[in-house]
Design brief:
- The protein starts with a helix and ends with a helix.
- The protein is built from 9 helices and 10 strands.
- Helix 2 packs parallel to helix 9.
- The protein is globular.
- Strands 3-2-1-4-7-6 form a 6-stranded mixed sheet, with helices on both faces. Strands 5-10-9-8 form a 4-stranded antiparallel sheet.
- It has one domain: Spore Coat Polysaccharide Biosynthesis Protein SpsA, Chain A, CATH 3.90.550.
- The chain is of the alpha/beta class.
- The protein has helices spanning 4-14, 45-58, 74-87, 104-123, 143-146, 181-184, 204-212, 237-240, 264-280, and strands at 35-41, 64-69, 91-93, 127-132, 135-137, 152-160, 168-180, 226-230, 241-245, 249-251.
Length: 281
């Protein structure tokens, strides 16, 4: 349960929509079989450019790509908004987060809640996907295919927590998560960390427990595995590695350098080389 003042700050934050800085938003209901892809941008305009170009190259379904900007750096915000305007992309200027450093997971979760309540939910796309700004498709992908036989898809997080019914907290990492709106309709989605988990875990009881913790159900869901790849010697995931998710996606990891990684510049140069290679693929 949140403290009263925290809850009040969140409600004020969620209601600060629309913003005069928004660009090209359409919040009316979409047609059937539509797909919304929404990324949360944070202080790295280059990632948005790479991500959009690679989504256009590899996503085989028609989709609308929307950038929700959670950047704290004014220059980054200006550049991201200018890029979206030039490309004709919907741009959401998120209000200043109710959570500052070091509560990055809460800031991300609040941003996702804001976007879901004010933009994704009113549009009622048949399917929607949530992306971190530093995750990129590496081969032809159909998000609709992911959801052919299940209501959501992504990288499943599993936390062993005795206080949770069944002893396991299950939820999708919202940096790469796809949902069928038929299933989410009418449910309370909460992407804030909760119950001892990270960003996205607040939806455990509404989204995940009913299907994943019912031993009577025989349905088997498929989720994406993560393969962490070292760039050099070292075991710091944020500084020394990148990851493949589900063999379809490349995750830069720490592209905004929120962790102040020692080798960030070297890692960034290597990752940009990989992204350029993908564009030439």
């Amino acid at each position: 349960m949140k403290y009263p003042m925290e809850a009040i700050r969140l409600q004020i934050y969620y209601r600060r929509f629309p913003s005069k800085e928004n660009v090209g938003l359409i919040t009316e209901s979409l047609s059937n079989d539509s797909l919304d892809l929404v990324t949360i941008a944070f202080n790295n305009p280059e990632m948005i450019c790479y991500q959009y170009r690679l989504l256009k190259k590899f996503i085989t379904d028609s989709f609308v790509y929307t950038v929700a900007d959670n950047s704290t750096d004014a220059k980054s915000r200006s550049e991201i908004r200018a890029y979206c305007t030039k490309q004709g992309l919907p741009y959401i200027a998120l209000p200043p987060s109710p959570y500052g450093s070091p509560y990055y997971s809460k800031s991300h979760g609040a941003a996702l809640n804001y976007v879901y309540r004010n933009y994704i939910q009113p549009r009622s796309a048949s399917f929607f996907g949530l992306l971190d700004h530093d995750i990129f498709p590496i081969c032809p992908i159909s998000p609709r295919f992911y959801l052919k036989d299940q209501p959501y898809y992504g990288m499943l997080q599993v936390c062993e927590l005795p206080k949770i019914p069944g002893g396991r907290l299950l939820y999708l990492w919202p940096g790469l998560a796809f949902f069928d709106s038929v299933y989410t309709q009418g449910k309370l989605l909460n992407f804030l960390p909760d119950f001892g988990g990270d960003t996205g875990s607040g939806s455990f009881f509404s989204l995940y427990k009913p299907l994943l913790c019912d031993e009577q159900k025989e349905t088997v869901f498929h989720f994406a595995d993560e393969e962490r790849i070292p760039l050099w010697e070292g075991d710091d995931f944020q500084n020394d590695m990148y990851a493949y998710i589900g063999k379809d996606w490349l995750h830069f990891v720490n592209a905004s350098d929120w962790r102040n990684a020692a080798d960030y510049n070297k890692k960034s140069a290597r990752m940009k080389e990989m992204l350029e290679d993908l564009l030439q693929k």
